[in-house]
Amino acid sequence: MKLIVGLGNPGKEYDKTRHNVGFMMLDNYIDSKGINNNWSKKFNGLFIKEKINGEETIFLKPQSYMNLSGGVVRKYVDYYKIPIENILVISDDLDLFVGNFKLKDKGSCGGHNGLRDIEKNLGTSVYKRLKVGIAKDKSIDTKDYVLGKIHKDDLDKINSLSDKICSLIDDFYVMPFGDMMSKYNRKNR
Fold it and tell me: Helices 69-80 and 113-122: crossing angle, nearest 10°?
């Protein structure tokens, strides 16, 4: 079984904010696959259970707010007995330019509180991530920036990634992760 987690904050006021890029990418994938967009609730998370490429998959949007995402992820991992190597977490990343993304199989949270909480709750920094660039604006406090609405030009760039990210998620079922990183990762441009 696979667990694909999109990180974000619940509530309409956070729609199309930079910190909700994980939710957006998960929604785009589900729409592209024609999966019934009927989210169920369990363990303070919204989830869809679907068979993809013959493998049971849980798509998860934690509803505990970003900084407490790890507790929700842990409950799903324990309840469904999902191996940590079968988890892919999609999040925003300040160090990548808008329109860029990067796969990582381990490493620090890079100051991202949602990833930090997942690392704490899983007891490891070795888990797969898809980081989507939101850039950085040093003239704005980081908290205000990540919770701010995405400007139209940036939103267009992020949405233009949808096809590549959908292909990437499809490859998550059939390709070793190291091969995926070689295929998809590129320099920040």
Answer: 40
What confidence tens digit (pLDDT) does each residue in 66-97 have?
A: 999 999 999 999 999 999 999 999 999 998 99
The catalytic residue positions are 19
What pLDDT does residue 189 have? 57
Residue 124's φ and ψ, nearest 5 degrees, are -160, 155
Q: Which residue has the tokens 């994980």?
A: 22
**Phi, psi (degrees; rounded to nearest 5) at 7:** -95, 145
Residues 6+ apart with CB under 8 A from 148: 17, 18, 140
Q: What are phi and psi of 127, to 5 degrees?
A: -155, 155
Q: In order of start, what are the domains of the chain with their CATH numbers?
A: 2-184 (3.40.50.1470)
Give per-residue pLDDT as tens, 24-56: 999 999 999 888 888 999 999 999 999 988 899
3-state secondary structure labels for all residues of 2-49? EEEEECCCCCHHHCCEHHHHHHHHHHHHHHHCCCCCCCEEECCEEEEE
- What amino acid occupies position 24? M
Question: Of the candidates 71, 90, 92, 117, which has an alpha carbon nearest to the alpha carbon of residue 26?
Answer: 90
